[in-house]
Amino acid sequence: MRHAHSVEQVRTAEAALMARLPDGTLMQRAAAGLAATCARLLPRVYGSRVLVLAGSGDNGGDALYAGARLARRGSTVHALLLAPDRAHPGGLADLLAAGGRVTADPTEFTRADLVLDGIVGIGGRGGLRPEAAPYAAMERGGPVVAVDVPSGVDPDTGEVPGAALRADVTVCFGTYKPGLLIDPGASHTGALHLVGIGLTLPPASVTSLQDEDLAALLPVPGTESDKYRRGVVGIAAGSARYPGAAVLSVAGALRGGAGAVRYVGTAAEEVVRRFPETLVTEGGPAGAGRVQAWVVGPGSGDGAEQALREALAAEVPVLVDADGLTELARLGPDALRERTAPTLLTPHTGEAARLLAGATGDAPPPAEELAAARLVTARRLAAAYRATVLLKGSTTVIADPSGEVRVNPTGTSWLATAGSGDVLSGLAGSLLAAGLPPLDAASAAAYLHGLAGRHAAEPGHPIAALDIATALPTAWRHRR
Ligand SMILES: NC(=O)C1=CN([C@@H]2O[C@H](COP(=O)(O)OP(=O)(O)OC[C@H]3O[C@@H](n4cnc5c(N)ncnc54)[C@H](OP(=O)(O)O)[C@@H]3O)[C@@H](O)[C@H]2O)[C@@H](O)CC1
Ligand SMILES: [K+]
């Protein structure tokens, strides 16, 4: 599991540790880790050109001290000071003592074999300021290594409100920051390296599953298992107009580990033709047999209202997707108030905008605004509806009403294909039926779905939604 901590949590842990250590110890630990990573990135440290972009704070201090270490190993190190009269005094003195020089020449950015971005770290707010903004678009001669955070990325949220540096590698200190894991910030970090500096941190509210976490979450049938113990997932999806959504949701559900898939809706014929193992019931969720979790909404069209009401009345976990979400947005959070079992909502940003409008009574915010603020949006929705929310898109973010968040690391842009969300809904519903709590079910489903998309698209070609469902067993088996 990757754990990400907020700036406030990092500052608290830093203060506690600094009180016990001699001045400057943490910065030296950070600089040592940073310099070691830079040395590995350079073909040869001796004789390489290194540029340090140093801002006014400790982030610049880290970069200057790391520059000094590289200068002592024979690199030609220049420092470009973005606030020359406020550069970190100790770091600058150390760099000069090691033979480094100050430059005012911005073209050094292009000449350098490696650039250290020490403009701003966890103390930064807003995009790059005018003196630093041109570096965001400038041609580079070698890798850019971000110190702690790529400058211009909000460390707490991943928002990128203005210009920001795109790093090839980010060396972060003590812990990951949420903004390094969530787009658009995540797409600025490049490869992530964590350097331990000895902080004692509280439990993280933002985490990201890794392969071994997925392995621990996925249900494995025991010798006592029968289909009911493994879970029956009910799929209320599809309509005369959109029968395909039902087929795709069932396809995802069948490969999600539940013991059986029960389908209700008007696309039964198409579903059974494709997947004869599906149990089919006439009518809506209310009249269906035993079901341990419902998925309601993909392609439901006009049938969404009735199906949603019936599913929400059941005392089992319910996943609401697509047309079900549009209907829920119309009803507002009150529709979930009486529920005793968990509810999982799986909106894309357009549906999230409607859900927010349904909760506030305001006009729906532009979907692009929500896409740029994914963490905040998922948390707002989870709080408003008191439900677990899986916000789809570039970095899928899953928030539960307690404020806990999982960030999915396996996304791929190949997943942005029609019907991909239908497969995800069935898969997540299946994991809910198998008994996983909603945060686990949603994050495991997003992880597997992303992996399946990668497998299906290998070695790099377009895929259709059914390809994702077909690749799920491979993703399940290999988990990477
Ligand atoms: N925490 C830890 O455990 C450890 C932390 N360490 C390091 O310290 C870093 C945090 O250092 P920090 O607190 O000095 O803040 P930092 O990010 O350098 O910013 C400082 C100043 O920048 C300015 N500024 C703001 N926004 C800006 C913008 N957009 N563009 C340009 N400038 C902007 C603003 O000043 P202003 O100009 O507004 O007066 C602000 O006060 C951390 O990321 C890590 O690298 C390690 O050494 C070891 C252990
Ligand atoms: K930085």
From TrEMBL:
The keyword Zinc appears for this protein: no
CDD domains recorded: YXKO-related
Residue ranges of coiled coil: none
Amino acids binding K(+): N59, D117, S151
MF term (GO), any: ATP binding
Biological role: Catalyzes the epimerization of the S- and R-forms of NAD(P)HX, a damaged form of NAD(P)H that is a result of enzymatic or heat-dependent hydration. This is a prerequisite for the S-specific NAD(P)H-hydrate dehydratase to allow the repair of both epimers of NAD(P)HX. Bifunctional enzyme that catalyzes the epimerization of the S- and R-forms of NAD(P)HX and the dehydration of the S-form of NAD(P)HX at the expense of ADP, which is converted to AMP. This allows the repair of both epimers of NAD(P)HX, a damaged form of NAD(P)H that is a result of enzymatic or heat-dependent hydration.
Protein name from the UniProt record: Bifunctional NAD(P)H-hydrate repair enzyme
